[in-house]
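Human: I would love a firmer grasp of how sequence relates to backbone shape in proteins. Could you go through the record with me and say what the backbone is doing? Here is the record:
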Amino acid sequence: MNADSRRKEVLETLVDFTKPIDVLETDISQIPWDAPMSLITLTKDHVRRVLERYTSKALSPREVEQWANLLEVREDIAMEESVRDVVCRLANPILEGDLSEMEAQSLIKGPLSHR
């Protein structure tokens, strides 16, 4: 597998959150964060699915925060502005406050809705 294919595979696994967070951290640490262009797009659906997993207790607030931190500064992952705002909020609970189930539901029904 060439480097670009490997990078894209790691990024897809990250945005889909299909591996444990510690594995994602290890995988993502092995590829550079900067890129001349985006290779993948983080969508509302990706973030909504992660928050739905959180509200069903499949993910902890800390796992959601770690996932968002891995995404936040990557140049190889494109994001819509509304998605970027939510990721920034999720990555910064010290500044924004801890994520609650009620807030997650509000994000799912608000900026992450299918509108």
